[in-house]
Each structure stands twice: as C-alpha cells, then as structure tokens.
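Re: Re: token formats

Sure, here are both.
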Amino acid sequence: MTQHLTSHWDFERPLHASDHHACIIQVNSQEGQHLVEITGIKTQQSKYAIYYALFYILIVFLCLTLVCLPSGENNSCCSCENGYAWPSAVCSDLITCPSVSLALDLPCSYMMEMPFYGPYCEPQTEEPIVMNMSVRLDRGFVDDLRNSSSEFYKKYKADLEKAFNASYRCLPGFVSATVTGFRMLLFVFSDQTNFTVSPVDIFEGDTVRLICEINSTSENVTWYHFDQIISPSFHYSMERKFSRGTSRSILKIVNVTMKDSGSYRCTFTMSKHLTTWIYKATKIIAVSPLYITPNLNDINVTCNSPEMQTNSPLLSCCIDRHLPSLTGDWKVNGAINITGVPSFSENCTEYKLKIDESLCPPEKSGTVTTYTCKLQTGHGARRSQNINVTYLRTANVTISSSTNSSVSEGHPFSLMCESDVSNYDSISWKIQSGNNTKTVDCGTCIKNSKFPATSVLTVKTATQDWNGTYICTFSQKHLESSANVTLKVISLPLKSNILIDPITASIQCKVQQTLECCISANTTEDYTVTFVVQQNEFQVEQQLKAYCKFINHIEQEVKSEDITLHLILAQEVSCSTSFGIGKEGATLIKPCRGLNISDGFIRGNVIYKCSNKSWKIARNDCLSESINNLMTSAESLVKSPEAKANLPNYLAELKEKTRKEQNNISHSPANLGAIVTILDMVSSIPADAEEVTIQVSFILSLTYSYQKPTSSLLLDSVENFTRHLQPVNNTIPPVSANSLQLQGRVVTENNYTDYNKNFSSTENLTVNVFIGESEIQTLTQNSTIVSVMYSKLAHILPWNEPECVNGLLITTTVSSNRSQKFNINMTFTKKDSSLKMAQCVFWNFTLNKGGGGWDTRGCIATEVEDYVICSCNHLTPFSILMSPDKSSQVIFEDYITYIGLVISILSLVVCIIIESLVWKYVTNNTTSYMRHVCILNIATSLLIADIWFIVTASINDQNQQMSRGICFVATFFIHLFYLCVFFWMLSLGLILFYRLIFILHNTSKTTQKAVAFCLGYGCPFVIAVITMAVTLPRNNYTRRDVCWLNWKDSKALLAFVIPALIIVAINLFITAVVIIKILRPTIGDRSNRQEKNSLFQIGKSVAILTPLLGLTWGFGLATVIKNSHRAFHILFAMFNALQGLFILVFGSLWDKKIQEALLKRNSMSKWSSQQTKILEGFSPIHREFLWPIDSCIPPCIEA
C-alpha cells in the first residue's frame, strides 16, 4: 500500500518571525558556501509580510521494497527495492540507519529490530506526488537568475539540486529535488499606512484630498486608480512631505466627477541592503451628484392679482442631506425684474418674491423671468437650478359693435374685441342665449391680430343663430380675460326665401294682375310690405319690373327678386287661363309649389310656353323635396356660428339623401345643379381630413353626368374643400373612395423632406406628385399639403377638339398663402399611347368669363415612352391634353413647303457658287463690291436658316421626341438668321439709297463694310438674345408643336414680325425714292425712248418688290388670324418657300455683269449676245443696283 504525502509552501503567505523554523544545510558550490534555509510557512496572520526571493525545489517521497542488511546486534538496516516503497502510514516512525551502517549506499535505509515483523515494502502503483517549496538565499539578487539559459543560473541550479538530493535522500518517500526558478525578496506592509480622505461626503465638482502617511522615510510614492498609475495633470496634483521618521503624500483631485469614483491605492517603496519594503493602502471613494430639488418648477403669477400681491410665492431649493459648509445664492434674469428676499435654513435656500404690479406692464404679460438658485459646498462643488416664473396680467378687454344693439336677419354686422395684453395664446368667441352657449367656429369669419391685440368677428348674413350675448375671451396660459355685448337679431326674411308669383308674366293695360310675395318664417314680427312697380323708358316693348319690399320695426328692409311683366294688347292674347295670359309663343314662369311642403313652395321654377292657345310646360326646374331641404340646410349651415362643428353631420345627411335620390338627381339638371351649388357653399368651411373626404367623394360620383359648362364650379368646390382640410393628430389621413384618392402631409419643424405621393386608378392609370425639399422649406410650420386624384372629373371638363384629356386629374393645394412661384413635378401615365403632342395643362378658373378652361402657362411637358412628366411653377388642378397623330395627314401646304425648301436650298447653293466664280469680275468698284457682299450674306443666312428649319421639321414628321433644349437652340438660330436676311436686305437698300441720293459723297469700302456687317449680324443677334432672355424663363419662348417663336402665350413672334415690317416699310420707301429719281428728267441725258424704258423698268421693279416685300408677310399676318382662310396659308407657304429661287433669279442671274462674267469664263458668246439684247432696255444705274429687296419668313410656320 502506497500513500502520497503532499506539502506546499506558499512564498506569498505572511510568516511571523518567531514562528518560522528552518533546517540549515551547508551547500558547497563554486561560488562559495551558502546557507539554504528550508522554511515551513504557517497560515496564521502576522504583523510582518515577508516575501522571499526563493527558488523552487521538487521533492518526491516514496517507500521502497524491503531489503535488510545486518547492522549491529538485533538490528538491521532495511530499504525498499525499486518498484516498492514503505507504507506511508509508518514512514514517519522509521529511524534512519547510522552513517557507519553497511547500508549506507542504499537509499531510504532504516533501522529495523530483529526479528523483523514489519512493516514491509509495498508495490508502488501510483505516480509520485510533487510538492513545491521555496527557500531564501542570503545574498543579493542577480538579474542573470531570471534567465534560465545563463551560466550563472545553471551553476546555482546544479549546486542547489545536488545539495538537496544529498541531504533529503534518506527522507521517507523522497525521490528527487529540482530547482525551477529564482526571484527577488520583498517585504510588503499593508497595515502600516495611514490613509485619509477629505471631505467625507464627496459631490461632483468638489476638490478632494487623499492623504497617505507612513512611519518611515520613503521618497518613492505611486498613486493608483483602479490599478492604473496616476500621472500629474490639471485634474490631478501630488504633494510630498517628509519629516523625521515619517513620509506623507497628498493626491488632490480638482473638480471631481462621477468617473473619479472607485478604488485608490498609494504605494511607498523603500529598498535597502538587498531588501525592498513596500507600504501600501487602499481606499474606495464614492462621488455623488449634487441634486437640487426646487419646490416649484414653472409657475404662473398674475401681477395685478390682489391675492398674489399679499401672498407672494416662496421659491426654494434643497439638497437631500445636511452639509455644514453649504451656502446658497439667487440670481434674477428676465425682462420683468421682480426681486425677492433670500434666506437659508439647514439644507435649503429660499427666496420670497415681492410682487409689484408696476413692474409688470400689459405689453410684457406672458414674459418669463428665470430665478436661478446656486448651492455650493465648502469644497468647491456647485450646482444651480432654474425656476421659471411666467408673469401674467389680467387684460382689460373691451368689445364694440358695428351696429347698435340690434341687427336684422340677412344684414351684415361685425364685432371688435380689443385687449391691452397683446401676447395672448388664443381668442375664443361664444354666444350665450338663455341656458344655451355656443362656440363660434365658422372658419374665416374671425380675424385675429397681435399688434394691436384685436379680434374681429364678421358676419355677412345674420340669422337667428347669431342672437344672444357675445363673450370674447383672450386666453394666456390659465388666465382668461373677457368682455361681452348683447346683440339682438330682428326677424327679416332673406331675399332667397321670398317667393314671388309670377316670376315672368304678361299683363293687359287696365286689367288687374295679382302679384304675390310669400315668406315662411316662425316669427311674431309685424312686417310692412309694399309693392314697387318700375317702368323702363328705353324699352321698345312695354315691360315692367315689380318687386315687393319687407320692412321690420327697426326700419331695415329687404327686396324680393324682380317680377317681369310684359304689357300686351287685348287682341294679342292667345292663352288665357288661371295661370295667366299671353300671346302666341310667350313665356310664363311660375314658382314651384308643393302640396307636401310645410310652407307650400320649394325652390326652382316652371317655364310655360303659349302654344296653340294653351300653356304647355317647356321646362321644369323644380327641386325635389329632399334636395330642397338640403339646400335650405346648407344655407343655414354656412351662416351658422357652429358651421365647422356641424359640417360632418350635414355631409353625412347629404350623402344619405343623395344616395336615396340618386336616380332622380342624375335625371334632373336642377337637382344636379343644386348638389353642385351645395358643395360650393359648404366648401369654404374648414373640415377634418377624414370622413369628410369620403362623403364628398361619394357625392362627386353623382355629379359626373353634370353638364360641362358648370363643371368648373364643381372642381373649384372640391379644391376649396382640400384647401380647408384640417389635420387629424397632426397628419392628413389617406382616403381612397370611388373615383377620388386623397393624400397629404403636415409640414412640421422636423419634417422638411421631399413630398412624394403616388396615385393609381382602377384603370391602371397612375400619377406621381413630387415637391422638392427646397420648396417645402419655404412653407411655414403646420402648413398642409394635400393632393387629390380624380379619375373621372377631368372628362366632364370641356376641351377643344381634337385634343382630349389623356390622363388622370390631380390637384395639389397648400394651406399657406403663396404669391411666389412654387415648383412641382408630376408624372402621368398615358391613357391612350397612340396620342401625341402632349401638353401639361392646368384648369384656369378665370378663363372664358369665369367658366374656366385649360391653360398651359407655367408648365413644361416631357414625354418618356408611356409617361408624360410635367414640371410646373404653380399649384392648380393639372392633367395632360394630347392629340391624335397627324403624321400621316400631310396637307397640301406641307408639300409646297418641302418642295419649295428643296428648290430654295439648291438655288441658294447655286447662287453662292456663281458669286464665288464671278467675284473678281463684278467687284471692281465700291458700290458693286458692297452690293455683292450683301447678296452673298443674304444667300448664306437664308441657307443656314432653311437648313435648321428642314432638320427640325423632319424630326417632328418622323414622330421623334425632340428635347426642349434642341428645340430652343433651333428656334434661336432660325430666328437669328431669318432676321439676318432682313437686315442684310436693309443694308442693300441703304447702299442703293446712299448711292442715288448722295452722289457727290464718297465713303471708303472698309467703313461701308463695317456698317453693313454690324447692321446685318449685330442687330439680329441682339434682338434674338433679348427675345430668348425675356420669354425662356417663363417657358413660352417656343410653340408647343413646332420649333418656332411662340405667339399664343408670349407674342414672341413679334420679335420677328416688327423688325420685318419696319424693314419692308423702309425698303418700300427706298423703292419709291429710286423710282422718283429715275423718273426725274435731267437736261440732255435721257430721250423719250429712255423714258419709256425707265417706266418699263419701274413697273418691273414694283412687280418684283411688292410681292416679295409686302404680300409675303401680309399673307403671313393673315395666318395669325383665328380660322383664317386656307388660301392665305397656301400663298404664305408658296412665297416663303421660294425665297432662294427669287434671290438666285433676281439677285444673280438677272445681273448683266454676272452674265458677262459667266460668258468670259465659259466662252459662250452667242448666249451672251442674246442676253445682252434682252437687257438693253435697262439704264446703267438701274442695271447696277436693281435687285429685289426680298423678305423671308419661315416656310409654312403659322403665326
């Protein structure tokens, strides 16, 4: 049986000096003799902590198989063989054999008495047990002992292992001893340091002092915070003090924070005589925030309240514990400087306010004064707390009326409420009538202003709902200031509620005619009713106007609608019944009367026509009973002080009744018109964007069959609804019902992102509305943006054939009042992809005398496959108009234009070639040179303009989408070079005028050429640039369908027409001067034959110049006229398309000098001879200068 014993010596355990014992062993080594002390370390706590610089020894104990040798009388020296060991239970009782024993060379030999009865060695079956030990070497530590590969380390290790193995070899169970390492000897004292902290209660901001003191002298002090060494800084500072036998270190922490909490350790280190002493101590500090608790947070104080002046508020700030060194202070900051009396008690500071009404004027009511209490500990921690006091003042409110104490029904009145306190939060109006109190909530009838503080209640039509005592209340925080006035509404029928019978009728002279004026009113008012008949003296036929007038007791009156009476003769009477009389074809209009109506009549009228001596109904415009009641309720609603609150209930009723009357409404124009009128009336009432929209969408579905002339009113009504929608919980709930979808957003302080909404219809048509962030940021806070999509409403709005609405209708409204431009982008899906020429249009309610119409101003259309992108700079109802593709419908004018352009371009090329060939032959003098310079530039300018025009025309004819940028560039150059043609013709005319009139005056060629080029290219360029700069920003520079100057919107075409007409007029004047000059006889230079030839040439000149200069543009102006005759278009296209041919024939080929030059180059003498005979009739001057000053207008471009 083998038992293993384990013993462990821990080198870091404290050992009392008197308790440790050691076995001193002589160790011989090459370095000299050293004492090795084997120390047993006890576990009890001691005053001194001894850390040894030790090496480790590995000792193995085993008991071996029994082998005995005689050793004296009755004794034997026994030991165990290999693989066996003494039983562990008896190892401690064995006696070692003496050194002189025969068994000296045997390991673990012990004396056994003979005879031997045990114990016996047992087989060793387990691994030896390793035990760690440490011993102290009485010498200084050498760094080489840290390096296990150094020679010094190896020598020490070998000598110590040899000494231990030799000394312990006979110990029971010992196997071997191994040195594992060396370390330095330290003495650590943890209870010899005096560690104090000041202050005991530490708050954020305090200056904390940590003091460590030992009864020894040590200059090496280190401070630790969570085992991190603290270095001196602005936050940490260290101070050391030494005295006889003591050392002190002070760590000061300035403005301590919560992060400075935790464990702090100070360490004093002292080394002497190969030994190091360490004194250390640890403290944990806790930093607490200095919490201040005010007795009040934010309070409201009424300055002119007697109670508040006698019992002023007490402000106080306290902390949660008592600090002897705590101090407090108060600071006042605000426009109202009301101070108080400070005091201090234990852990609180108090401030008693002294309220003074004179320090709180009305204009400063609502001002916030901040009272700051500051508490400071004696060690630097300080905290402050603000208490906000809002000083209010009871306002002096007055109320006045535009009338006396009474007003009649149907008449307007206004009330003004004024307050001396302008900084109010809200104003409310209430009407108290008996025990009933109503809050006035009528939308736009109340206008409030801040400076001065006023509120004006304006009532356009007084009803009995406005009767009572009006209470106007200015609210500021919790304080309310009011004034009241009593207003009595006197009964008087409304004009619309007075029934007249008849409305239009015929009467005979001297025959009595019954006229009726009826009202329905629940009143005790005694009206004075009079009838007034008026006669129009300027009527050929006798016609009378009559009306009735109701006057109440306060002398206010109301007039009925006019009754029209036609005077007829007795012999003219054809129809005569109880309804009335009339001649054949006459009209009789009677009011509608219903037997089931409580008041006996309903709205509308019946038109009778006299036919075959009897009255027959021509048209019945009477409303149904339910629609009549709805109309009456709507009129009462919009005139009610509680219009906004009652609107949802009314719309629910309107929806329910229109559903029941759907068939009657859809087949009755009068009922449909009444529904539209009702929507128009109630659309001005603000409503929550929720159920209201759904109800309106259903009502709209009933009106889609309504007649187009009044559909504009329907659209305007719905747009008014969206403009007055009120957010629900600061949002616009989305609505999708029937043919209407609504989405929107409220602009808040943190929500200035892009506005991007998508809509889709049941027909898979879509529209996207996008407003950029830059535009959103221009809106005021709490503004609403609401977009409504209509899938059917656009189709009942009128348009001009062949254009049609090819997408959805979208309206976007903003609640903020905006006068400047507002950029919005919309992307529409085409309903019919075969339609072309997309226009982005909006519904302009002001067109057609208020009837409305589609307008394109302020919008740019861009087609991308099946979509049309509209970029507009305003907010209105938008859609797209498109036309059928006319590419295959090439009209006769187009053929003329294209054929003429080809001829013109070829002619101009030939003209330029001819001029280049004969240039040196025909420019031998200044006049001829300038003439041909003008001709060459005219031909070049017209050629460039024609090329630009034919390129853009071919792109359009091939149905290719041309970008707006390319179209702008093409229009600019076409405009520029056509103007150049005109101005070069003007230059030519001026040269002709100059040479004929100023014969004796001569100007250099360079000067003439400079003036001609400035006039020919400079003036056109200036005009073209100004035209583009003025019209392009407004998106009306070009036309929608062709790349040419706009006429309909901006009249940009005038930038071409006016210069052209002026030049035509100037050239006509020059022509007249030339003719007069030629006809004016001079002495001896002209015969009769010459005069005849001159007259002939004048006739030819007029025949050439007049069509080219006058008729061409005259025909062009005729095409501007709406519905002009087609002949003007054909003539205009013909004359303009052949401009190049005219220049070739009359500018080059008809010039004799050019002919002669060509003959010289080609040796065509015969041809030259014939042409010379033809032109013999021209005078030399005429042959030199005669050439038609042509005009040029874009071929086949209608104005």
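Second one below.
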Amino acid sequence: MMETERLVLPPPDPLDLPLRAVELGCTGQWELLNVPGAPESTLPHGLPPCAPDLQQEAEKLFLSSPAWLPLHGVEYSARKWQRKMDPWSLLVLLGAPVPSDLQAQRHPTTGQILGYKEVLLENTNLSATTSLSLQRPPGPISQSLWGNPTQYPFWPGGMDEPSITDLSTREETEEEIDFEKDLLTIPPGFKKGVDFAPKDHPAPALGLLSLSCLLEPLDLGGGDEDENEAVGQPGGPKGNMVSASPSPAPLARASSLEDLVLKEASTVVSPPEAPKSIPQEQWAIPVDVTSPVGDFYRLIPQPAFQWAFEPDVFQKQAILHLERHDSVFVAAHTSAGKTVVAEYAIALAQKHMTRTIYTSPIKALSNQKFRDFRNTFGDVGLLTGDVQLHPEASCLIMTTEILRSMLYSGSDVIRDLEWVIFDEVHYINDAERGVVWEEVLIMLPDHVSIILLSATVPNALEFADWIGRLKRRQIYVISTVARPVPLEHYLFTGNSPKTQGELFLLLDSRGAFHTKGYYAAVEAKKERMSKHAQTFGAKQPTHQGGPGQDRGVYLSLLASLRTRAQLPVVVFTFSRGRCDEQASGLTSLDLTTSSEKSEIHLFLQRCLARLRGSDRQLPQVLHMSELLHRGLGVHHSGILPILKEIVEMLFSRGLVKVLFATETFAMGVNMPARTVVFDSMRKHDGSTFRDLLPGEYVQMAGRAGRRGLDPTGTVILLCKGRVPEMADLHRMMMGKPSQLQSQFRLTYTMILNLLRVDALRVEDMMKRSFSEFPSRKDSKAHEQALAQLTKKLSALEEPDVTGQLIDLPEYYSWGEELTETRSLIQKHIIESVNGLKSLSAGRVVVVKNQDHHNALGVILQVSSNSISRVFTTLVLCDKPTSADPQEKGLATPDVPYPDDLVGFKLFLPDGPCDHTVAKLQPGDLAAITTKVLRVNGEKILEDFNKRQQPKFKSEMLGRDHVTGGQEERGKDPPFAAVTTAVQELLRLAQAHPAGPPTLDPVNDLQLKDVSVVEGGLRARKLEELIRGAQCVHSPRFPAQYLKLRERMQIQKEMERLRFLLSDQSLLLLPEYHQRVEVLRTLGYVDEAGTVKLAGRVACAMSSHELLLTELMFDNALSALRPEEIAALLSGLVCQSSGDSGDQLPSTLKQGVERVRAVAKRIGEVQVACGLNQTVEEFVGELNFGLVEVVYEWARGMPFSELAGLSGTPEGLVVRCIQRLAEMCRSLRGAARLVGEPVLGAKMETAATLLRRDIVFAASLYTQ
C-alpha cells in the first residue's frame, strides 16, 4: 500500500502566521511585512506624552534623597581618571606675526611688475593696549569711533617718538652703572653694610704757615716795568692782570719776596663770557593780507570748493596755505567770513578722501554748523553727548571735550584725520574749559594739520608761535582788522516819543572818536534832568530804572529805528530776568505783517508738533509763541532748547524784528542784524559788576551789519541814567581786545590718562602748555649755552686748594651765604612798617648796586607809591675824569678779605670828592645806619637838576678843559645844603672805614619774625667763620680765589640753566605731586605710579571723577533704585544753587548726606596732601537744588508739573537733565569695566527714564 504524505497546514491563529500587519498612519491602510510578530501601528498608543515636572524631580532626586547623589558614595572616593599625557601640546603656541612681506618691484614708467622682493616689517607685534604708534593694527569696529579707556592714545605730535634703536639705547643706558656713585654699600635685606669711603686724615693745625707753602715753585722773572705794565693795564699780554690788593692801602706786613709773589700771583681770570646769541627759530609766520592775490586761480586752477562770491584776500591767502597742507591761524572780526576757510578744508578733505573734525565750544553751535555744512557738503556727521549722527562721515562736528576723549581713548578716527578746525579759539580764555583746548592741541598727532579760527586778538603771533614750537611746524597767521560792513556807534539818551531823536554819533565807520557827539549827549541828558527837577523837585530821582522806565526807553528807540528802517535789532541785556521783563513789557508793540504772522504760525505748528500735548501748553511755550507772533524774541540759557532754536531760525529768516538776548547769542553762528543795542555797558562776571571788556564789546557789536544788505552797521548804547564817562567809553570801544591767556590746570582725569601710558609723562604735558611757553621757548638756546659753559668749564684750570688754601671753597661759600642772608634780612626790613619809618629823609644809608659799591648816601625824598617805592638819595662818588664812560676802563674785580665781607668797607674817593643824586630801589640799600642828617632835600634836588641841564654841563666842561676846572667852578658853587651834606657824609666815611653802626633789625626795628632772628644769628656765625679763615694768609690767595670764583660762577649759571630745562622749574609741579599723593592715598595709583583699577574707572568719567569712583566703590549707589540714583547724581551737574528741600523721601535724604560725607572725605585728603582747595569749597561744588525735580521727572511726572517744584528756569532744568543722562552713561561703562552688571543695568535704566519728551526732543538743526 502506498503511504500518503502529510501536509503541514498553517496554524489556524492568524498571529501564528509569519506575517506582520502594520497600520500606516490614520488613513486606514495596512501593510504586510514578511516578519512574524503582532500587528503594529505608526501612531503612538496611550495618552499624549508630557514632560516631568523639573522642580519636583529636582527636589526628589537631590533634596529628598541626597544619598542618591554620587558624591555621597564612598566606593568611588579613591577613583581617579588618568589624564593622557601629550607633551607635544606644550609646544603649541599662537602664530607669531609675519616678520617679512613681499614687495612688488615695478617698472618706473609702465608700472609692469618686474619681480618681488622680500622686505622686513617693523612693529609687527603692536596693539592698541601696548603701543602709541599709528602702525599698530586697528581695534574692534565697535570701538573705532569712541575708542576705549584701556587703549593707548596715538603719539602726540611734536614729541620725539622713540624708535626701537632709541629704546635699546635707553635700555643700555639704564643698565650702565657708575662704579663710583651707584654701588650699594648695604646688601638688600641687610641692616648694615660696609663703608668704603676713604678715611679722613687729620688736617694740619690752622694758623701755622708751613715753609713748604712759601717755597713752592714761583715764577720770579720780570722787572718792575713789566710788573707795572701787567698790573696797571687791563689790556696787558693776557688782558687780565690787576692789582691783588683790594685797596691802595699798603699791607700791614710785607717783604720784598711777598710783594713780588702777590704781584705775580694776582692773575685775574676773565669773567665768564656771555653765550653767543643763538638765532631763534620762527614758527609763527605772519601773512600780508594787504596785497591782492592776483595769481590765485593760476596757482589753484581746480579749487576743491567754489563759492557764489569772490573770496576776500585773507580768505585766498588761507586757501593757498591749505593747498600746501600748512596749518593756519585766522584772526578776523565777527562776520568777516572765517567759515570760508573751514569750508575749503572740509572740501579738500573730501577730495583727498580723508576726514575733518570741526570743533566748537558749545553744543548749540555744533548743531547749527551741522545744519549748514550738511546742506553744503552732505557727508557730515554730528557727535555730541546725547546725539550721534552719521559717525562714518568724512566731516565730523563735535565739541572740544569729545575730541579730547577720543584722543585719550585712542579712537581710530584719528588715523584718517587730515584737518582739525578749532572755531572760536578765543574761548581758550574760559577759566573752566580753556584747559581742554590746550590738552587737545598737545595730544594731536603729527600728521594732523590745524586750522584756528578766532576773533581778533593782540597776541595771535605769540599763540601761533607756541603751537608751532609745540608741533614743530610753521603756523601761518592771517589776521585782518577790516570789517566787511563798517560800524557806527551811537549814544541814545531818549526815553519818550518826544526825545526819540536823541541819537548821538560817538564813533564813525572810519574809527574816529567824536567828542562833540559825547558832549551833545551829556548836554541833552543834563537839560532833561533840569526840566525834571523844575517839574517834580530837585530831590526827585531822574531815573528809577524799573520796568516802566525801560518800557518808555525801548518804545521810543524802536519807533526811531523802525522809522529809519534799521530793523531787525538785537538787544544785548546781561541778565536773564531783565530779558524776559523787557520783552514782556512791550505788550503794545506789533512789528509783523499778516503774511509774516501766518508764516510764523505755520513754522511754530510744524516745530511744536513733535512735542507731547502737555508740553505744548507749557507757560514758556505759550508766552514765546505770543511774542514771536508780534516779531519779538527772547534768547538766553533759561529758555528751552527747542524754543531757542525756533527763535534763531525765525531770526535768520528776518521774521523776528527785535531779539532780547544775553551774551551767549554772540557766540552763535553768523546771524547778523541791522542794529545792535546795548542795554548797559556793565555786567556781572560771577563775582562783581564791571564794565564790558573791549573784546566782549567787539564780539557782540560785530553782529551789527548784514553783508551785502547794509552799507554800515549801527551800534547803540542806551544811557538810561547818566552818560558814562568818556574814558570808559573810549577804552571799551577802541581798546585792545583781551589777549589769549593760558587757563591750563591739572585735573585728575588728565593725570590718570597719562600715568597709564608709560611713554607719556604729565611733566611733558605741563612743559608744552601755553602757561609754560614764555619760560620754555628759549630751551634750545639754554641747551646750547649750557654746552658752551660746559666746554668752557672743562678748559678752566682747577684752583689750588691744598695746604693753607684748604678752606678756600668754604671761605667762598661763607661769603656768598653771608651776602644772601644780609639781603634777605634787608628785604624784611624794607617790607616792615618800622623799616619804612626809619627810611625817611635825612637817614644815612649804605648804597650797593652796579654804580656804587658801599658808598654812603643820605635820603632826600621817598616816593608815596607803596607798590614800587623809590628813594631819591644823594650818594658820594669819584669826580668823573672823562665824559665818555667807555674811556674809564673795565672795573677790576675785587678779592674780598674778611674785613670786606664782615663789615661794610666804605667807599672813599681817591681824589676830589663828588656827589650824585640817584633814584634807588629797596634792593640797592645794603644797610641802614643809625645816623640821621638834617638836609634840605628840595634845595639839593634843585641844585642837582640845574647842573644836569645840557647848557650848564657844556659850560662846566668847557671851563674845566680850559682852566683846569676847579678855580672856575668856584664861580658857580653848589648850594650850601649840598656842600654841608657831602662834607658830613665824607666825615662819616673817614671816621668809620668799616662802616658806621647800623640799625639792628631785632632790637632797634622790633622785627620778631623767625626768619629775621635766625638770619641774624646765622650772619654772626658766618662772620666768625670768615674771620677765622686761614686761606687769606696765603700769598696765593688772590689768584686762586679769582679762579675759584670764576669756576663757581660758571657752575652757578649752569645750575640755573639746568633748572630752567628740568622739570623742577615747572610752575605746576608742586601741585602735580600733591594730586598724585591724593591719588596714591585713595588707592588709584600704587607707589610706583601704576594706575590701579579705581584709577582706570576714574579715567572713564568726564567730571567729578574722584567722587563718582568713590561712590561706586563704596557701594553707595548699588542699593538705590534707578530714579534715586539719578536724583542724587543731579547734585554733581546742577548749576543752580539751592537747598534740596524737606519734601524728599528719607532714602534720598540719607543719600544726599552720604554723598556729602564722601565729598568731605575726599576734600580732607586733598587738604592733607597740601592742595589749596578747602574742604568747604570742595563740598560746596555740589548743588542739590534739583534733586526733587529730577526724582519726579525720572518717575514719569510731565514737564509741565515740574515748574511748581523749583524756581529754576526751564532751560537750566533741561540742561541739568541732559548732562545727567551723559553721566549715567559714563557710570554704566565704568560699572561694566569693574564687573558690576547690576549697577550697570540700573544706570542704563536711569538714562532711559531721563531721556524722554521735551527734555530730549531732537534738535531742529538735525532734522
């Protein structure tokens, strides 16, 4: 039977099939896979996933069961992971800079590349934090504009930049050791050392004349004839032989040998020759602006900029020098066209694809120049404290303080800089900010050319010479006094419509002063005063000076000017309050037409539309709008900035007919008027009332006269009260303007910025300041004179100070010190009351000056001038033997013996005695004797003056020549008073050859000053030492003394020259050391002068650097809120004085006290270090009058509600908040530098809270 094969059937369960079903998504489609398994789906199963609660998980794992953490297990406590050793990683360094480069060699004609040459590169490892060179690589792009306080500035021009060779030479020099002076005698760490000084051997007993000294080799040759020739004639073989004896009296003991020795040894060394005159370098080159520039367009066929008018001669001269890349100083009157020079420099820089910086003294002027230059050139940027527009432009306009900050911070903008234009350079006379101009001029690099624009100043050449020597480049001075529109100056005495014609010409357009007009104004004023007295009584005041009187004066004046078509007019009033009062009092005056009113209205609406609603309703805005509609305007620092700009723009359009302004308006751009009126010629300068200076008057009067519109400008001075004195008017109108004077002073910011750079020294900055220029301009001449004296000193023979002459140097120094001590005592006597009382007519004195040597004299008259007192004195003298002073021969130098030094060895005439009358200064009186003569000073002076007449002198000389003189002169004898006085003086001189008794300053004159008493004791001690000197007994004393004296005089002159060339002669050096000691005490610098962290923070501050840094490091600001910090810091920038008030929160009150405490601590440190500023003065610089205003403003209060919190004008409030925002930004940067992110964030918030609404409304000039 056949077996059937069993078939294996699949299991009945589908799950047992070798297939898997997969559901694809949610579409209902399935797919079979040849893989056994359960069905699957691509969709997730169950609930949607959720992330675990991290907080609960962290609490469960780390807090509830800390044993879970691995660090609590001990099984891995000894476990370590072996680090893989890789010694080669130690050899991996950053790539070194490439030391060389390939330079293409081109054909000089075709430019074809012929090959390449490897050239070595210098300064390849420089950086902005290690080098001042322009070859260093640029910094980060974010810091290219403002720089960084940690970066070095570029090397200032005019200073010798040390090269690598110089540095290596300097290092070698520093390594050199003087093995005679620089060796240490005490090893480091030891208390005692070894004294290597030579042991002193006992000197021979004084008073013994050793035989060896007498028998030294002497040249005994020569006869009496030769000796007499050598002694008597100064022009002998050597020209320097004189008698050794100081007087013709014979020696007390002398042998023939000693006489011969004295005559032969009395060799006089010629006095030190004056150094040869050294030709001075000329750095300031005056340019003749009177001759026309006929070949201007031939020299510049394609000028960089062209105007619609023909430039003036001085403008063409300046342009020619700009084309040669010269630096120029243009001094001209206001509105003369100095801006043309600046415009050409900007155009030239754009042509050269370089950059120009235009600096101005005030922010408002920067905004106005930005508007003008942007309309002209287009590519113009603006940098101010709160605005930064187009910083990449080729022409940047900024204030001088910002340029100083960029220079100190090493801004890369300086690399591309070709010109720096300083406008209104005469602002350097400003006491507070003038130092900024000097700092910037000193710090500018060498490749930058300088353009200085200034009003006319009398010392323009001196200032340009300083800059030329500073930068070692010639400065071309282009100065013109010509005005494009001549001025006429008037006095106005009217005060009513009847007297509105009282206008009197005082100074015409040709510069002639009319006294006739002045007296006419005086008569008109006097006539009105007499009529007023007849009407109201003589005791009635003629002028109250109140608003009512001012209103009558201005109504009559403006009516007269309006009739004569002399509007618009600028009225300069030197008080903000009076400006507002005068404008508000003219309520009935309307000077605009309906079309002008419409134009003014539309302009106001367009400008005020950028303000929020409440700001448009400010009282000042509404009041100014009403005035502007009537053609009136007000311009001073109390006006809101946007309103001042509106007034300026409407005035430039001719829509403001009368503008009441303060002096600041004259500093603005060229906005001339037809007429300028001075409300008064007196102003308050911050300390007292005074007349206007000529420079101030010229600056403001220069606004009169519009070029191309008016033939002349009119300047009117109001005479509300009496007419000013003619001399005062003449001095103000025709006097010389104020000179440019240095206001250089040391600031902590300057010191710290220079201390952090090793290559720059503060002493170098002080040397180059304008204040040190008079004493430093002859430095090169001093150096050459010092070299000549050094050469001459080395050629001199050393004096012999051995043997009996061993104390010769001490004898010389004792004599010099005695003379100096007596001069000091005499100076105190002259300055004392009792001393001046003793110097009355008849007092006998000892006279010692260039013409008289210890001659007796009697005082005839004493001048009443206490500042420079002059004593007219009759003095004994020799009878003149020749009328020609050159025939008298050279004076023989004296060798002082003890009798000459200790006493006053009086002058005795050799032959007939004569007299003279001299006007003596206090320093010419060597001593005041106890003798008083009865003299008739008037008779003596009358006789002397008669004999000085040329006719009388010629007759006397003729008689003397013919008859021998003495007999004929008896025919005209002097007055008996003269003869008696001369005989008395001669008798005194003969009776007291060593000098008559003198007044003792302590006992007779009752001078109890310590210096006088100590000086008298020292003088007696020196006299004893001089009397005991043994060198005078040596026969070689005269010759050796003269050698020593010449040597000492040359050394003294060399020391004086070295002092003038050294840092010790700097006027501000003591203050510098005091300020450095303050910084060292506060921890800003260390003992070696290295700037520490606090010092680097202070460098980032623009003002109050010490106080702000101390507040930051004391954490006095960190705990406060941003608005509280801003309120406290307002005390550092507020200009209006006042109390902070009792309405402040307790936190602010405590903060104010803490700020004052920190300021007091700093002030005490300054006083302890020797600075002159007292603690009260330093703390008094803080004004907390706007603390509440700033606090509420930062909290969001509208500006309209701030007016009730303080009486400060709105413009000053705005200025305070703007400066406060700049300070907050400085503190923000400083906080980031220190690593205080919390404080930095708070300062950022504070600045944001302050920057809103009308306070920070954008300038109309920048729109």
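The first helix runs from residue 54 to 64. The radius of gyration is 44 Å.
- S.
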